[in-house]
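Supplementary notes for students who missed Thursday's class. We covered one full example, reproduced here. Read the sequence, then the structure, then the short commentary at the end.
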Amino acid sequence: MKVSIKDYFVSMKIQDPIPLTDLAQFLEAEIIGEPDVIVYGINEVHRVEQGDITFCDVPKYFKKAFRSMAAVVIVNERVLVPNEKSLLLCDDPFSAFNKLIRKFRNVAPLSAAISKSAHIHPSAIIEPNVVVGNNVNIGAYAHIKANVVIHDNCMIGERTIIHSGTTIGADAFYFKSRKDGFEKLETCGRVIIGDHVEIGACCTIDKGVTSDTIIGSGTKIDNQVHIGHGVIIGEECLIAAQVGIAGKCIIGRRVKLWGQVGVATRLKIGDEAEVYAQSGVSRDLEGGKAYFGSPAVVAQEWFSDYRAMKRTPYEILRILKILKK
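Structure (token representation):
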């Protein structure tokens, strides 16, 4: 199962495509625009494909939703219908989207440590106390060490090693603030892990909200790394201990993230970039360069600025001595 950054998996497809009129009735929403539309999938706005329905409840993001490939957008304001789009108008698009996910996803609690619906290659090694969810696929010669948890629908490539205490496919950390607390966005995506990947102990890799978190083939991940929902990591990356990557980031091929690097949400890091330890990435980074600092900048620039800053007090003292004379 060769997985690269170019691969793209979308898991929340409706088994029996449904007319928009039926969805409008189910959600108690008003159709704005063309009613004769068939909906094939449910997806968040960042990952939509043709025929999908998505939602947007913040006016400043309407333009992004309307420019996406979505066939239908659930909104909470009466607006002009964009070209080739239909809208569903309701009071709370976030809750409506959750209602759709709960209706169309299949959830079956585990009754055994290893689900009968899991597909595990005979050559794979599964150590004691491993939990394997429904419809999980584990490839040839994979080695899943003790106390690993792999949640529903995840895919593990050939000769991939996952060390003890790691959890693959936990729910996305995605909440909407309400007056009485937080409402969770329901999660129904997957984690797709390529061939020859190694994942250290006590790592946590969240599944996508409606699509997939992807770890490219040949990538090596150290202990205690967290990878958020919908992240795509390219082939042959090195990710050191205690790195945290927020949701929906795209990491290129052969990228190196050293210890305790933090990457903010929805950012892109280009191929063969290197981010030195304890740096904080708050903007997109070009490939082929080394970065350091928080916010991370080109490392050579940071070290030049630091040397200049260290020299400044001595330069001021030298000037003061000259002036005193």
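Commentary. The radius of gyration is 23 Å. The first helix runs from residue 20 to 27. If anything here is unclear, bring it to office hours.
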